[in-house]
Specification:
By secondary structure, this protein is of the alpha/beta class. It has 3 domains: 1-61, no CATH class; 64-239 and 280-366, TIM Barrel; 244-273, no CATH class. It is 40% helix and 17% strand. The chain has helices at 2-20, 36-44, 86-94, 138-142, 161-171, 190-200, 218-226, 240-255, 260-275, 286-296, 306-311, 315-321, 334-346, 360-366; strands at residues 47-49, 55-57, 71-75, 99-106, 112-114, 124-125, 145-147, 153-157, 177-182, 209-213, 232-235, 300-305, 325-329, 353-356. The strands form 3 sheets. It has an 8-stranded parallel beta barrel with strand order 3-4-9-10-11-12-13-14, surrounded by 6 helices. The chain has a 3-stranded antiparallel β-sheet with strand order 6-7-8, with no helix packed on it. A hairpin with a 5-residue loop joins strand 1 (47-49) and strand 2 (55-57). The protein is globular. It starts with a helix and ends with a helix. This is Glycerophosphoryl diester phosphodiesterase. Residues 70-366 form the GP-PDE domain. It comes from Pseudomonas pohangensis.
């Protein structure tokens, strides 16, 4: 049953891709034929509609990311599709992000799936009415229906990691990777992470998969044992200032009713529920960056919250000196993230890339790198 489901997923992707693309005069072979008026308008601006309706560069249809080698990863898949979904991962690869970032968790029976939260309440509707991943098995999962990013039910069912990896294999171009964030690894041992790597590399090569974690270097060091070729990134937990900004943006009305220490404790509890903690050790000093490089070896990175990098732009030079790639993420909105990156660019302190919630064309245009 397991292999049949993966074969079916590959067949569906292949049929969809074949039927969705045609050769149009003057346009790449994957241009959509039934969108001629839009193709004409986009062509005049140097773009076209490619597979799955994503906007691509006309003169460089295979180019990844932005100019100057600035790397962009799609956050939980394509920004307009359900997060961590089969469709979202496939379309994000077709859109030519450098990497597609997803979130891996384990079900009760050991099955690896993609979901950001410990609960499915925000992302899907389950037939079994189970919402905690620790109470679900693969049957519960694959009989669930997804919600879009507005919380509305859509006509797509949940798939496990193996099935989604099969779709990624079909859609990936050379140089693209699937960045799997290891979520909540407190109860997961190194053997479990080895199984995760085996699942991810059923179809993808070892170098086509990368791993990231906000839970310290231990799970990443374990992954290095299982996958010597993978890029490994420690996600630097946000500073207290960044968490306070997130709490104000997402829970401002609730917090406004509290004062003093009660407000601080409430914000800390909200941050802990959302991110696992409200205090994180810093890895931004030269000594800690060198330790990170020594511990993980190979290709290694540090991913930091954008407001923390704005407060310490010298981190870019320190990371590069230590041989560590530096990328940013945000706790707030995407446009603010890009505007902050633009400000860093003007100061000569751009990181190597960012995890974003916008399309490659919009992202690169806003950064002046299109």
């Amino acid at each position: 049953m397991y292999s049949v489901r993966i074969a079916l997923a590959i067949a569906v992707f292949t049929i969809f891709a074949a039927n969705a693309t045609w050769a149009l005069p003057g346009l790449p072979g994957d241009a959509l034929e039934d969108r001629a008026p839009e193709q004409a308008a986009l062509s005049a601006r140097g773009y076209y509609l490619g597979r799955f309706g994503v906007i691509r560069r006309l003169n460089q249809p295979q180019a990844l990311g932005c100019l100057n080698g600035f790397e962009i990863q799609s956050h939980r898949g394509y920004p307009t599709l359900p997060e961590n979904a089969f469709s979202s991962v496939v379309v994000a690869f077709a859109a030519k992000f450098n990497a597609v970032e997803v979130d891996a968790r384990q079900l009760r029976d050991g099955t690896w799936v993609l979901n950001h939260d410990e609960s499915t309440q925000r992302t899907m509707l389950t037939r079994s009415n189970k919402t905690k991943l620790r109470n679900m098995d693969r049957s519960d999962w694959t009989q669930s229906t997804l919600r879009n990013r507005l919380g509305q039910q859509v006509n797509e069912q949940a798939e496990d990691l193996a099935t989604i990896a099969s779709g990624a294999f079909q859609a990936q171009s050379p140089g693209q990777t699937l960045n799997i964030e290891l979520k909540d690894n407190r109860g997961i041992n190194c053997q479990d992470l080895g199984q995760l790597n085996e699942t991810a590399t059923l179809f993808l090569s070892a170098g086509q998969v990368s791993y990231s974690s906000m839970n310290g270097v231990k799970p990443l060091a374990c992954m290095r044992e299982h996958n010597p070729e993978a890029y490994l990134a420690l996600i630097q937990g946000p500073s207290r200032k960044a968490l306070e900004k997130w709490a104000a943006a997402n829970h401002g009305e609730e917090l406004s009713k509290l004062n003093g220490n009660r407000r601080l404790r409430a914000a800390a509890q909200m941050a802990t529920e959302a991110f696992g903690s409200y205090k994180y050790p810093s890895w931004s000093s030269t000594a800690k960056l060198q330790e990170l490089r020594r511990t993980l070896g190979g290709k290694v990175g540090l991913h930091v919250e954008i407001s923390d990098l704005k407060a310490d732009p010298g981190l870019v030079a320190r990371a590069h000196s230590a041989g560590v790639k530096l990328m940013t993420y945000t706790l707030t909105d995407n446009d603010s993230h890009l505007n902050d990156l633009l400000a860093l660019k003007s100061r000569g302190a751009m990181p190597d890339g960012a995890i974003v919630d916008s399309t490659p064309i919009k992202t690169c245009k806003m950064l002046g790198l299109e």
